[in-house]
Amino acid sequence: MVQIFYSHHTDTREFVHRRINTESFDKACEIVDQYPWAQEIALFEELGEGGGFEFLLGDRRGPHAHYQFTPVEEGKGFLDVTVVAKSGLLGVLGRRALSRHFDLVTIEAAKTHIQELFEHSVEFLYRKHKLLKK
After folding, report:
1. Neighbours of 5 (CB within 10 A)
2. Domain range holding 36?
3. With a threshold of 0.70, does the pTM exceed it?
4. CA–CA dist 86, 108 (Å, integer)
5. Which of 8, 25, 66, 110 falls 20 to 30 Å from 125 in CA-CA distance?
6. CB distance 81 to 113 below 8 Å
7. Helix locations, the chain, DSSP H
8. How does pLDDT run across 38-74, given as a tens digit for each residue?
9. Residues 131, 110, 88, 92: is their CA dihedral positive or negative?
10. What percent of the residues of the chain are helix, what percent strand, and what percent coil, each to the nearest 5?
11. Inter-axis angle of helices 107-119 and 122-133, to 10 degrees?
C-alpha cells in the first residue's frame, strides 16, 4: 500500500491537501496527470506557495521509502527520495538510511521512479539507491 499526499490550489485559490491510500500505480499516475500544473506554477510565482506530491511506502516511524515530487515548471519538477531501511536504536545507532536528490525531472521520469514503490520493497529500494549513489 502506498500513501499519496498532494497539495494544490482550488479554482477559488484555497490551498487544499489530499491523501489517498492505493495499491494501484495507475491511480498514482491519474493523480499526477490531473494535477493543475500551469495553475500551480502561476500561483507559486504570485503567492510564493505551491503544492506538490509525496509518495510513502511503509510507515515513517519504521522502514519506509518517501518520494517527494515538487513542481517547478509545467511538466517538470524536483524529485527527492529518502529511504529508511532500518530506524536504528534511538533513531541513530544501526540506522540504515539515505537521501537522493534528482535534478529537474519530467513527469514521465518521476513516474518511472514512483512506480518502484508499487513493485519493490523498502529494502530493495535502499540497496538500489545506495548502489546508484556511489
Report:
1. 15
2. 2-133
3. yes
4. 30
5. 8
6. yes
7. 25-33, 37-47, 107-119, 122-133
8. 888 888 888 878 889 999 999 998 899 999 999 988 8
9. positive
10. 35, 45, 25
11. 130
Between residues 130 and 120, the one the model is more confident about: 120
Cell 539507491 found at: 129
Contact assessment for residue 67 and residue 114, using Cβ atoms and an 8 Å cutoff? yes
Angle at CA 20, nearest 5°, toward 19 and 22? 155
Taking only Cα atoms into account, the Rg of the chain, rounded to an integer number of angstroms, comes to 15
| Number of neighbouring beta carbons within 10 Å of residue 53 | 23
Which three cell numbers mark 60? 515513517
**Number of separate domains in the chain:** 1
Burial tier of 100 (Cβ tally within 10 Å: 0-12, 13-18, 19+) = middle
Taking the CA atoms of 117, 118, 120 and 121 in sequence, report the sign of the dihedral they define: positive
